[in-house]
Amino acid sequence: MTIQTPPLALLLDVDGPIASPVTRSVDAGIIADLNSLVSAGIPVVFNTGRSDTFIAEQVMAPMIAAGLPHGAVVNAICEKGAVWFSFTADGPGTIHVDKDLAVPAAYGDQVRSLVASSYADHMFFDETKRAMVSVEQHVSVENADYLIEQQDFDGAAMKLLFQHGLGAIRLGHESPDEAGNIDFRVDPTIISTDIESIRLGKDLGASRAVELLAAQGIVPAAWRTMGDSRTDYAMADWLHYNDHLVKHVDVRPADGVPTKPYAVLTSVDLGLGEEIIHDDAGAAFLRAWLDAVTD
Ligand SMILES: [Mg+2]
Protein backbone atom coordinates (compact mmCIF):
# COMPACT_ATOMS: atom_id res chain seq x y z
CA MET A 1 0.00 0.00 0.00
CA THR A 2 1.27 3.47 -0.88
CA ILE A 3 1.39 5.63 2.23
CA GLN A 4 -0.15 9.07 1.84
CA THR A 5 0.98 11.88 4.13
CA PRO A 6 -1.46 14.78 3.83
CA PRO A 7 -0.32 17.99 5.59
CA LEU A 8 -3.39 17.94 7.84
CA ALA A 9 -6.16 15.64 9.00
CA LEU A 10 -9.31 16.97 10.66
CA LEU A 11 -10.94 15.33 13.67
CA LEU A 12 -14.24 17.08 14.21
CA ASP A 13 -16.83 17.04 16.94
CA VAL A 14 -20.19 17.50 15.20
CA ASP A 15 -22.70 19.17 17.57
CA GLY A 16 -21.38 22.69 18.03
CA PRO A 17 -18.60 23.24 15.48
CA ILE A 18 -20.34 21.57 12.51
CA ALA A 19 -24.06 21.18 13.35
CA SER A 20 -25.84 24.16 14.86
CA PRO A 21 -26.73 23.49 18.51
CA VAL A 22 -30.03 25.31 17.84
CA THR A 23 -31.31 23.65 14.64
CA ARG A 24 -29.07 20.55 14.94
CA SER A 25 -28.54 20.64 11.17
CA VAL A 26 -25.46 21.60 9.14
CA ASP A 27 -25.22 24.84 7.16
CA ALA A 28 -24.80 24.40 3.38
CA GLY A 29 -21.57 26.45 3.39
CA ILE A 30 -20.00 24.05 5.89
CA ILE A 31 -21.03 21.07 3.77
CA ALA A 32 -19.47 22.71 0.69
CA ASP A 33 -16.19 23.42 2.49
CA LEU A 34 -16.02 19.90 3.94
CA ASN A 35 -16.32 18.56 0.39
CA SER A 36 -13.65 20.97 -0.84
CA LEU A 37 -11.27 19.86 1.93
CA VAL A 38 -11.89 16.21 1.01
CA SER A 39 -11.27 17.10 -2.66
CA ALA A 40 -7.97 18.71 -1.63
CA GLY A 41 -6.90 15.39 -0.08
CA ILE A 42 -7.45 16.39 3.55
CA PRO A 43 -8.82 13.46 5.60
CA VAL A 44 -12.03 14.44 7.39
CA VAL A 45 -12.97 12.32 10.41
CA PHE A 46 -16.03 13.04 12.53
CA ASN A 47 -15.78 12.16 16.22
CA THR A 48 -19.18 12.47 17.85
CA GLY A 49 -21.42 11.20 20.59
CA ARG A 50 -24.18 11.08 17.98
CA SER A 51 -25.45 7.91 16.32
CA ASP A 52 -24.43 6.71 12.87
CA THR A 53 -28.01 7.48 11.75
CA PHE A 54 -27.63 11.13 12.78
CA ILE A 55 -24.32 11.43 10.93
CA ALA A 56 -25.74 9.66 7.86
CA GLU A 57 -28.74 12.02 7.74
CA GLN A 58 -27.22 15.35 8.83
CA VAL A 59 -23.69 15.10 7.41
CA MET A 60 -23.22 12.22 4.94
CA ALA A 61 -26.38 12.74 2.85
CA PRO A 62 -25.83 16.50 2.40
CA MET A 63 -22.13 15.96 1.55
CA ILE A 64 -23.10 13.38 -1.09
CA ALA A 65 -25.89 15.59 -2.44
CA ALA A 66 -23.42 18.50 -2.68
CA GLY A 67 -20.95 16.45 -4.72
CA LEU A 68 -18.62 14.48 -2.45
CA PRO A 69 -15.91 13.44 -4.94
CA HIS A 70 -15.96 9.85 -6.18
CA GLY A 71 -13.21 7.74 -4.66
CA ALA A 72 -12.96 9.87 -1.51
CA VAL A 73 -13.53 8.17 1.85
CA VAL A 74 -14.86 10.04 4.89
CA ASN A 75 -14.70 8.38 8.31
CA ALA A 76 -17.21 8.81 11.10
CA ILE A 77 -16.70 7.71 14.68
CA CYS A 78 -20.00 7.76 16.50
CA GLU A 79 -21.26 7.14 20.05
CA LYS A 80 -17.92 8.35 21.48
CA GLY A 81 -15.95 5.54 19.87
CA ALA A 82 -18.35 2.60 20.26
CA VAL A 83 -19.59 2.76 16.65
CA TRP A 84 -17.83 3.70 13.42
CA PHE A 85 -18.26 3.61 9.66
CA SER A 86 -16.85 5.07 6.48
CA PHE A 87 -18.77 6.62 3.63
CA THR A 88 -18.17 7.51 0.00
CA ALA A 89 -20.25 9.11 -2.75
CA ASP A 90 -22.00 5.71 -2.94
CA GLY A 91 -23.18 5.89 0.70
CA PRO A 92 -22.21 4.21 3.97
CA GLY A 93 -20.05 1.11 4.34
CA THR A 94 -20.38 -1.46 7.13
CA ILE A 95 -21.45 -0.07 10.50
CA HIS A 96 -19.03 -1.39 13.14
CA VAL A 97 -20.18 -1.70 16.77
CA ASP A 98 -17.96 -2.59 19.73
CA LYS A 99 -20.54 -4.62 21.65
CA ASP A 100 -18.28 -4.81 24.73
CA LEU A 101 -18.92 -1.09 25.14
CA ALA A 102 -22.74 -1.25 25.08
CA VAL A 103 -25.09 -0.43 27.96
CA PRO A 104 -27.14 -3.56 28.89
CA ALA A 105 -30.28 -3.70 26.73
CA ALA A 106 -32.58 -4.34 29.72
CA TYR A 107 -31.43 -1.06 31.26
CA GLY A 108 -32.04 0.80 28.00
CA ASP A 109 -35.56 -0.63 27.82
CA GLN A 110 -36.34 0.68 31.29
CA VAL A 111 -35.02 4.14 30.45
CA ARG A 112 -37.24 4.17 27.36
CA SER A 113 -40.27 3.38 29.57
CA LEU A 114 -39.21 5.96 32.16
CA VAL A 115 -38.99 8.71 29.51
CA ALA A 116 -42.39 7.73 28.07
CA SER A 117 -44.09 7.72 31.47
CA SER A 118 -42.49 10.74 33.15
CA TYR A 119 -40.36 12.96 30.88
CA ALA A 120 -41.95 12.87 27.41
CA ASP A 121 -42.97 16.57 27.54
CA HIS A 122 -39.34 17.71 27.61
CA MET A 123 -37.22 14.94 26.09
CA PHE A 124 -37.16 11.86 23.87
CA PHE A 125 -35.35 8.52 23.88
CA ASP A 126 -32.86 8.31 20.98
CA GLU A 127 -33.80 5.05 19.21
CA THR A 128 -30.82 5.27 16.85
CA LYS A 129 -28.11 4.59 19.47
CA ARG A 130 -26.49 1.13 19.32
CA ALA A 131 -24.21 1.20 22.40
CA MET A 132 -25.15 4.28 24.43
CA VAL A 133 -28.49 5.29 25.92
CA SER A 134 -29.23 8.92 25.06
CA VAL A 135 -32.20 11.05 26.03
CA GLU A 136 -32.42 14.38 24.24
CA GLN A 137 -34.26 17.69 24.63
CA HIS A 138 -37.16 18.28 22.22
CA VAL A 139 -36.22 21.15 19.87
CA SER A 140 -39.59 22.78 20.71
CA VAL A 141 -38.83 22.98 24.47
CA GLU A 142 -37.04 25.94 26.09
CA ASN A 143 -33.52 24.87 27.02
CA ALA A 144 -33.82 26.41 30.52
CA ASP A 145 -36.95 24.32 31.18
CA TYR A 146 -35.24 21.22 29.85
CA LEU A 147 -32.18 21.69 32.07
CA ILE A 148 -34.38 21.68 35.18
CA GLU A 149 -36.16 18.46 34.12
CA GLN A 150 -32.82 16.94 33.10
CA GLN A 151 -31.53 17.11 36.69
CA ASP A 152 -34.53 15.09 37.81
CA PHE A 153 -34.18 12.60 34.95
CA ASP A 154 -30.47 12.12 35.63
CA GLY A 155 -31.21 11.25 39.26
CA ALA A 156 -33.79 8.68 38.14
CA ALA A 157 -31.34 7.23 35.59
CA MET A 158 -28.66 6.86 38.28
CA LYS A 159 -31.15 5.13 40.59
CA LEU A 160 -32.11 2.71 37.79
CA LEU A 161 -28.46 1.86 37.17
CA PHE A 162 -28.06 1.01 40.84
CA GLN A 163 -31.19 -1.17 40.72
CA HIS A 164 -29.65 -3.05 37.79
CA GLY A 165 -26.50 -3.66 39.82
CA LEU A 166 -24.49 -1.28 37.63
CA GLY A 167 -21.93 1.10 39.12
CA ALA A 168 -21.97 4.62 37.71
CA ILE A 169 -20.64 8.15 38.02
CA ARG A 170 -22.35 11.47 37.27
CA LEU A 171 -20.33 14.71 37.44
CA GLY A 172 -17.98 13.29 40.05
CA HIS A 173 -20.72 11.70 42.14
CA GLU A 174 -19.93 7.98 42.37
CA SER A 175 -22.42 5.15 42.86
CA PRO A 176 -20.35 1.95 42.69
CA ASP A 177 -21.76 -1.54 42.16
CA GLU A 178 -21.60 -4.20 44.90
CA ALA A 179 -18.02 -5.07 43.96
CA GLY A 180 -17.03 -1.41 44.19
CA ASN A 181 -16.70 -0.95 40.42
CA ILE A 182 -17.88 1.93 38.26
CA ASP A 183 -18.39 0.80 34.67
CA PHE A 184 -20.87 3.44 33.47
CA ARG A 185 -21.17 7.20 33.26
CA VAL A 186 -24.22 9.48 33.23
CA ASP A 187 -23.06 12.47 31.18
CA PRO A 188 -25.35 15.52 31.00
CA THR A 189 -24.73 17.84 28.02
CA ILE A 190 -26.61 21.09 27.29
CA ILE A 191 -29.17 19.26 25.11
CA SER A 192 -29.06 15.62 26.25
CA THR A 193 -28.03 13.06 28.81
CA ASP A 194 -25.83 10.18 27.66
CA ILE A 195 -25.58 6.96 29.65
CA GLU A 196 -22.54 5.05 28.50
CA SER A 197 -19.59 2.80 29.26
CA ILE A 198 -16.89 4.63 31.20
CA ARG A 199 -14.47 3.54 28.44
CA LEU A 200 -16.19 5.68 25.80
CA GLY A 201 -14.87 9.13 25.08
CA LYS A 202 -13.36 11.46 22.53
CA ASP A 203 -9.95 9.95 23.28
CA LEU A 204 -11.21 6.52 22.21
CA GLY A 205 -12.55 8.21 19.07
CA ALA A 206 -9.14 9.76 18.39
CA SER A 207 -7.40 6.40 18.68
CA ARG A 208 -9.91 4.87 16.28
CA ALA A 209 -9.40 7.78 13.86
CA VAL A 210 -5.66 7.16 13.71
CA GLU A 211 -6.26 3.41 13.22
CA LEU A 212 -8.87 3.93 10.50
CA LEU A 213 -6.64 6.27 8.51
CA ALA A 214 -3.61 4.00 8.94
CA ALA A 215 -5.66 1.07 7.59
CA GLN A 216 -6.43 3.27 4.56
CA GLY A 217 -2.70 4.04 4.12
CA ILE A 218 -2.96 7.59 5.46
CA VAL A 219 -0.48 8.98 7.98
CA PRO A 220 -1.16 12.72 8.36
CA ALA A 221 1.72 15.10 9.09
CA ALA A 222 -0.45 16.93 11.63
CA TRP A 223 -3.95 16.96 13.09
CA ARG A 224 -6.49 19.66 13.83
CA THR A 225 -9.20 18.79 16.34
CA MET A 226 -12.28 20.97 16.88
CA GLY A 227 -15.05 20.89 19.47
CA ASP A 228 -17.30 22.95 21.72
CA SER A 229 -16.95 21.11 25.05
CA ARG A 230 -14.26 20.47 27.62
CA THR A 231 -14.54 16.75 26.82
CA ASP A 232 -13.48 17.47 23.22
CA TYR A 233 -9.97 18.36 24.40
CA ALA A 234 -9.53 14.60 25.00
CA MET A 235 -9.08 14.22 21.23
CA ALA A 236 -6.07 16.53 21.18
CA ASP A 237 -4.80 15.17 24.52
CA TRP A 238 -4.74 11.64 23.12
CA LEU A 239 -3.07 12.69 19.86
CA HIS A 240 -0.46 14.80 21.68
CA TYR A 241 0.45 12.08 24.17
CA ASN A 242 0.72 9.57 21.32
CA ASP A 243 3.26 11.77 19.52
CA HIS A 244 1.05 13.31 16.85
CA LEU A 245 1.31 17.02 16.07
CA VAL A 246 -2.00 18.63 16.97
CA LYS A 247 -3.72 21.97 17.49
CA HIS A 248 -7.18 22.13 19.05
CA VAL A 249 -9.93 24.58 18.15
CA ASP A 250 -12.44 25.49 20.86
CA VAL A 251 -15.57 27.03 19.31
CA ARG A 252 -17.19 27.75 22.69
CA PRO A 253 -14.30 29.02 24.85
CA ALA A 254 -16.56 30.84 27.34
CA ASP A 255 -15.92 28.07 29.89
CA GLY A 256 -12.27 29.15 29.87
CA VAL A 257 -9.41 27.74 27.82
CA PRO A 258 -7.33 25.27 29.84
CA THR A 259 -3.54 25.27 29.69
CA LYS A 260 -2.41 22.50 27.34
CA PRO A 261 0.93 21.30 25.98
CA TYR A 262 -0.38 22.00 22.44
CA ALA A 263 -1.84 25.12 20.83
CA VAL A 264 -5.50 25.90 21.50
CA LEU A 265 -7.16 28.22 18.96
CA THR A 266 -10.38 30.23 19.09
CA SER A 267 -12.10 32.55 16.61
CA VAL A 268 -9.91 35.41 17.94
CA ASP A 269 -6.88 33.66 16.40
CA LEU A 270 -8.52 34.10 12.97
CA GLY A 271 -8.90 37.84 13.62
CA LEU A 272 -12.61 37.43 14.37
CA GLY A 273 -14.56 38.71 17.37
CA GLU A 274 -14.90 36.48 20.41
CA GLU A 275 -18.68 36.50 19.79
CA ILE A 276 -18.09 34.22 16.77
CA ILE A 277 -18.77 30.81 18.30
CA HIS A 278 -20.44 27.45 17.59
CA ASP A 279 -20.79 26.55 13.91
CA ASP A 280 -19.96 30.11 12.85
CA ALA A 281 -16.49 29.58 14.32
CA GLY A 282 -16.43 26.05 12.88
CA ALA A 283 -17.17 27.41 9.41
CA ALA A 284 -14.43 30.02 9.72
CA PHE A 285 -11.80 27.43 10.66
CA LEU A 286 -12.83 25.05 7.86
CA ARG A 287 -12.44 27.96 5.44
CA ALA A 288 -9.03 28.88 6.91
CA TRP A 289 -7.76 25.31 6.57
CA LEU A 290 -9.11 25.11 3.03
CA ASP A 291 -7.29 28.36 2.15
CA ALA A 292 -4.09 27.03 3.73
CA VAL A 293 -4.06 23.80 1.71
CA THR A 294 -5.25 25.19 -1.62
CA ASP A 295 -3.10 28.34 -1.86
MG1 LIG B 1 -20.20 19.17 20.74
Structural description of this entry:
It comes from Arthrobacter alpinus. This is Hydroxymethylpyrimidine pyrophosphatase. InterPro entries: HAD-like_sf (IPR036412). By secondary structure, the protein is α/β, with parallel strands linked by helices. The mean pLDDT is 97. It has helices at 28-39, 52-65, 105-119, 143-163, 202-215, 233-241, 278-294; strands spanning 9-12, 44-47, 74-78, 83-88, 91-92, 96-97, 123-125, 133-137, 168-170, 173-175, 184-188, 192-197, 223-227, 246-250, 263-265. A hairpin with a 2-residue loop joins strand 9 (168-170) and strand 10 (173-175). The longest helix has 21 residues, at 143-163. The chain is globular and about 60 Å long. It is built from 7 helices and 15 strands. It has 2 domains: 9-98 and 201-294, HAD superfamily/HAD-like (Rossmann fold), CATH 3.40.50.1000; 100-197, no CATH class. Strands 1, 2, 3, 4, 5, 6, 13, 14 and 15 form a 9-stranded mixed sheet that branches. Bound molecules: magnesium ion. Magnesium ion binds next to loops. Magnesium ion binds at residues 13, 15-16, 227-229.
